[in-house]
Amino acid sequence: MKTVYLGLGSNIEPKVEYLKKAVIKLSSEAKINIKKTSSLYLTKAYGYEEQADFINAVVCLKTELGPEKLLEKILQIESELGRVRTKKWGPRTIDIDILFYDNLEYQSQDLIIPHPEIRKRAFVLIPLVEAAEEELFIDNINITKWLDKLDYSSDEVEFYNEFPELNLNKK
């Protein structure tokens, strides 16, 4: 089983419900076991800023799925939850990104691991540091050091709430 970290975000109401549903759908996959979720964080929009604030979180999971199969599952879940890609960085019901997949460095036409934007985004690093079950590195630098290097304020990323309690028992 590989350890994977996923970044989740939503800025279309009901935001928290979309995040919950995404985690429940992930956990319903036989080859995915959710280990931990970060708290929820309210964050300003990134890229295209003329839109509603996001709720972001990070999920740590174990999986037997390879990176491309996991991406397929993620895209299926995004579609099931109404994600429509009309504008880069535009509003979305749910966004799920593979941040880390074990210690793998991987690049294909559709996927880069570790996610290339992690080091620039406090809204990813803050919940990632919280959810991390081990030390994580990008370019041999610990993710906490990348977070220390960022210039951000609590107005841009603030604690929103604990991740809602979920019943993720496999049947």
TrEMBL record:
Q: Which Gene3D superfamilies does this UniProt record tie to the protein?
A: 7,8-Dihydro-6-hydroxymethylpterin-pyrophosphokinase HPPK
- Please give the pathway this protein is involved in: Cofactor biosynthesis; tetrahydrofolate biosynthesis; 2-amino-4-hydroxy-6-hydroxymethyl-7,8-dihydropteridine diphosphate from 7,8-dihydroneopterin triphosphate: step 4/4
Q: What is its EC number?
A: 2.7.6.3
The catalytic activity, as recorded, is: 6-hydroxymethyl-7,8-dihydropterin + ATP = (7,8-dihydropterin-6-yl)methyl diphosphate + AMP + H(+)
Q: Which Pfam families match?
A: HPPK (PF01288)
- Alphabetic keyword roster: ATP-binding, Folate biosynthesis, Kinase, Nucleotide-binding, Transferase
Q: Name one GO biological process term.
A: tetrahydrofolate biosynthetic process
- S-adenosyl-L-methionine as a keyword of this entry, yes or no, is no
Does the keyword ATP-binding feature in the UniProt annotation?
yes
Molecular-function annotations in GO: 2-amino-4-hydroxy-6-hydroxymethyldihydropteridine diphosphokinase activity; ATP binding; kinase activity
The segment(s) forming the 7,8-dihydro-6-hydroxymethylpterin-pyrophosphokinase domain are 88-99
Report the leader peptide range: none
* Classification via PANTHER family: 2-AMINO-4-HYDROXY-6-HYDROXYMETHYLDIHYDROPTERIDINE PYROPHOSPHOKINASE (PTHR43071:SF1)
Q: What is this protein called?
A: 2-amino-4-hydroxy-6-hydroxymethyldihydropteridine diphosphokinase
Which organism is the protein's source?
Halanaerobium congolense
Species lineage: Bacteria, Bacillati, Bacillota, Clostridia, Halanaerobiales
